[in-house]
């Protein structure tokens, strides 16, 4: 049986400059301060510029705790912050990215793209509930960036 990856995308305008939004999104070590489902972050390795490269997360998901490690890609910084999963417990794959651009309204437009493939298939209603929680992350980013 082939399990298909679930994909989701959300675009939001944040009333803050691109550099501020980028800095918050790229500061993964502080995610537990503002991303409700992220409980713990451990940087396992850094790139040549000292930025987190391989990062282990503990997060709440579907009523349980999950662990996964992401590798971050800064090659299109500061317009894109991308990641791919190195290993996970209930996930087979996680690929995602934030895309940052100046909005016509003067703030930052952020597109959040995410693709997750779980080890076991989930019923549709559970997947939709999980998708809403995941996409809330971009709303939490907005709240954090606009709060200063």
Description:
The chain is α+β, with helices and mostly antiparallel strands and 148 residues long. The protein has a single domain, classed as START domain (Alpha-D-Glucose-1,6-Bisphosphate, Chain A, domain 4). Helix content is 24%, strand content 47%. The protein has three helices and seven strands; from the N terminus they run βααββββββα. A seven-stranded antiparallel β-sheet has the order 1-7-6-5-4-3-2. Strand 2 and strand 3 form a beta hairpin. The longest helix has 23 residues. The mean pLDDT is 88.
From the 3D coordinates, which CATH architecture would you assign? Answer: 2-Layer Sandwich
What is the number of domains?
A: 1
Query: What characteristic shape results from the CA principal axes?
Result: globular
What fold name goes in the CATH topology slot?
Answer: Alpha-D-Glucose-1,6-Bisphosphate, Chain A, domain 4
Distance between the termini: 49 Å
**Rg:** 15 Å
Classified by CATH, the class is Alpha Beta
Give the overall pLDDT as a whole number: 88
For the biggest β-sheet, the strand order reads 1-7-6-5-4-3-2
């Amino acid at each position: 049986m082939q399990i298909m990856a679930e994909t989701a995308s959300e675009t939001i305008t944040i009333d803050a400059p691109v550099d501020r939004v980028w800095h918050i999104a790229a500061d993964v070590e502080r995610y537990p301060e503002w991303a409700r489902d992220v409980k713990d972050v451990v940087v396992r390795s850094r790139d040549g510029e000292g930025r987190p490269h391989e990062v282990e997360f503990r997060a709440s998901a579907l009523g349980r705790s999950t662990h996964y490690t992401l590798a971050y890609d800064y090659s299109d910084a500061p317009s894109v912050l991308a990641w791919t999963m190195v290993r996970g417990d209930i996930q087979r794959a996680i690929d995602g990215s934030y895309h940052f651009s100046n909005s016509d309204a003067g703030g930052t437009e952020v597109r959040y793209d995410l693709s997750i493939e779980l080890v076991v298939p989930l019923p549709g209603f559970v997947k939709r509930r999980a998708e809403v929680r995941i996409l809330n992350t971009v709303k939490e980013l907005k709240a954090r960036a606009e709060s200063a």
